[in-house]
Amino acid sequence: MSPHRWQKSSYCQEGDACVHISVSPDSVHITDRPDPPQVILTTSHTAFRALLSYARSATTAA
């Protein structure tokens, strides 16, 4: 059993093209499929916030 509590992105549409995140006190884990759980990226909270900020600014500029 995975120690992660995965949350699906609110921007996810139907199908398998989704991003799931799991937050721990020290890091953020990102995967494209929580079942079976397979973390593909682990990063700091600061870096994850920067990624979200960049993604938001890129979508509003388009």
Q: What does the model show?
A:
There is one protein chain. Strand 2 (20-23) and strand 3 form a beta hairpin. The protein is flat and about 35 Å long. It is built from one helix and four strands. By secondary structure, it is an alpha+beta fold. The model has no long low-confidence stretch (mean pLDDT 83). The longest helix has 17 residues, at 45-61.
Category by helix and strand content: alpha+beta
Lateral strand order in the biggest sheet = 1-2-3-4
Q: Overall 3D geometry?
A: flat
Total beta strands: 4
Q: Beta fraction of the residues?
A: 15-25%
- Mean pLDDT score: 83
Helix-strand topology string: EEEEH
How are the secondary structure elements laid out?
Layout (H helix, E strand, L loop, with lengths): L6 E2 L11 E4 L4 E4 L9 E3 L1 H17 L1
Brief summary of the model shown:
This protein is α+β, with helices and mostly antiparallel strands.
List keywords for this structure.
62 residues; alpha+beta; 4-stranded antiparallel β-sheet
